[in-house]
Amino acid sequence: MSASVRSQPCAGALGAFRVIELGMYGSAPICSMLLADFGADVIKVEPPEGDFYRQLPPFERGESHYFMSVNRNKRSVVLDLKTDFGREALGTLIATADVLVENFRPGVLTRLGFSYEQCAKINPGLVYCSISGFGQTGPQREEPGLDLIVQGYAGMMLSSGEENQAPFKIAPAVPDVMGGQSAAYAILAALLARERSGLGQFVDISLLDTSIFSMQLVYLAQWLGSGESPARNGSGHPSMVPMQSFRAGDGRWFNLVGNTDRMWSDACKAMGCEDLSVDPRFATNAGRTANRQQLLDILEPLFATRPAQDWIELFKGAGIPCGPVNDLAQAMASPQLKARQMLVDMPHPRLGHVKTIGIAPKLTATPGTLRRPAPGLGEHTEEVLREVSRGD
Amino acid sequence: MSASVRSQPCAGALGAFRVIELGMYGSAPICSMLLADFGADVIKVEPPEGDFYRQLPPFERGESHYFMSVNRNKRSVVLDLKTDFGREALGTLIATADVLVENFRPGVLTRLGFSYEQCAKINPGLVYCSISGFGQTGPQREEPGLDLIVQGYAGMMLSSGEENQAPFKIAPAVPDVMGGQSAAYAILAALLARERSGLGQFVDISLLDTSIFSMQLVYLAQWLGSGESPARNGSGHPSMVPMQSFRAGDGRWFNLVGNTDRMWSDACKAMGCEDLSVDPRFATNAGRTANRQQLLDILEPLFATRPAQDWIELFKGAGIPCGPVNDLAQAMASPQLKARQMLVDMPHPRLGHVKTIGIAPKLTATPGTLRRPAPGLGEHTEEVLREVSRGD
């Protein structure tokens, strides 16, 4: 068991707050898990059939890795919101909560009697956050916002890769993960506002809005500058050279950044090619950008003469930004991620133990904690309903 | 001028807080801009030569779009930290601040006399957030964490695209943007902890840690399930079919998700191919996954018979998740993003006006505001130093 796994609950930075999650799939569960990791008491309210992710392979003895990856540190309560009992119990839970986060389609919770306005009557301090594919307003508000669909709308698929290549999904689930993160900081900002006003508020998160924000650097700046969609550049940069991946002699790829003239000069020295750094075609970044293909025609055969690790050590030794192009297994084996406890073994009642991603932001006085694995469906229904009936 | 641009400062959710940013490039400036958008008084402390992004094209009459995209709503103060005057002025600023966010290489601020411990002596309530490529601990702590380098380490380049394809950079700057977002929610959690304890703390953000977290859904779950790096699947999904991009008759691509048997059956009806939904090879998702290529051999020629917009309308009309694969210009022209005010014109003293990305999280009671464009270098040095000398 890792040092950061504690068997007892710990207050943490958000230990004073209770969060009701009415979430499925990725975005709302990620948001509430980020709050749970910092100590919030997150109660995940599921329908009798459970969060859809519970059914999604790969499984480990019946437990979905998808579900486990975004639901640790929570308690699960099953409520059937089609029944009077279920709706009454949810109302009681909401009365005790600081935050509600949900990702139903817009309008669904209103029809069930749990719109923001209805909840604020029960609990005026409630911060109520709705996450949806396109937001609660606008012509597309009713449309489902799956990760692939939002990636397509946001322009990120056709901005990555090579010109004329078929589009592909980018590996990080930017809509869901960034949407969940944005909801988390918006909720915390609303809680800080409540410290002064005493009042909660409604927070409206759109996966498309937050995804477009992720295009801020590089692509949106280029589009604002030129009015045209930036070209797809593979691993390269339109105006900084070299800043890209190269294939080494062992078939592995590595990234090299030598875009400032000082870095380029140091890189040339490390490679034993001082002539390149004084060559008028390549001495400046402007020259290297203008003569990119000529430079690649020199560098590519050179890099093919030695394995990637040699080049990485050579350039790192010279202070040049450089690193491997890892696959996921290589990434997770990195000594740096181990030192940062970014993959943690936690005890699990049915599996013995389970691996879970570590807590990325390291708070030092009130560190995040891994207190419990993802819950079984309805595992805490009785416990939680007893607590709220006692007025805890 | 958009309705959401106000000429007068507005308190906002974070109007009670002052943030000192000692930032350059992407991550720390993004973090402090997210806080500024919600009303925090962000003071960007720059060296006499300015944030490196000020030099990065594309420019609009001398103003860098890179710089403007992540520095609005801030004031700029130039301090030369190599001089006694500069260091004293920074100490005075820190004494008045709630938050300090910085992305120097680990150790640099300590050598200048502004480690967390040194700052906490001046101001025990200070939340001090350091953002670096690899974190403040671990064997790689000293290494520079540029976006491309971190993408390579985090496994996201070799998880996107097609098998055997050369790696490429994914378009969203996930390390910088997600790092900045993670820092923002970690800082707000620390401020909420301070509401109870009165004490600040040190927060350590690593772009590699936060990037690995972005691989949570899909890829990390698959790796945890199988122990192997997931295959590169283009736009497709390993275990849900159809869920991918298709090329239409006009050469444009569109995304279609019909992975549940109900959605697939509805999609077949919409296409006028009811026979496909009862075909035993394709009736279930398991069958469609097993017979993926056979299904594509039927669908691809069919989709080539009509333009993308026809298919999108057809499937949307039938309630099937569907949408275009936009380039960035198409994305930014979307009526939904207009309705959500995700591209806003703001007044600019030197350019007349400038376009800036909207505020993604919509808080309703204390909405974010666009109060001032990215500052000129040192534009507010006198104003801010006068304020703090008066004890504001």
Distance between the termini of chain A: 31 Å
Indicate the structural class of chain A: alpha/beta
Hey, roughly how much beta strand do the residues of chain A contain?
Answer: 15-25%
Low-confidence stretches of chain A: 1-9
Q: What is CATH's topology name of the largest domain in chain A?
A: Rossmann fold
Q: How many structural units, i.e. domains of chain A?
A: 2
The CATH architecture name of the largest domain in chain A reads 3-Layer(aba) Sandwich
The CATH class of the largest domain in chain A? Alpha Beta
**What is the tally of beta strands of chain A?**
14
Radius of gyration of chain A: 25 Å
Largest sheet of chain A: 6 strands, parallel
Helix content of chain A: 25-40%
Biggest interface: chains and residue counts?
Answer: A-B, 147 and 147 residues
By oligomeric state, this entry counts as: homodimer
* Average pLDDT taken over every residue of chain A: 93
Instruction: Give, in spatial order, the strands making up the sheet with the most strands of chain A.
Output: 5-2-1-6-7-8
* The CATH homology group name of the largest domain in chain A: Crotonobetainyl-coa:carnitine coa-transferase, domain 1
Shape of chain A: elongated
With helices defined by DSSP (H or I, 4 residues minimum), what is the helix count of chain A? 17
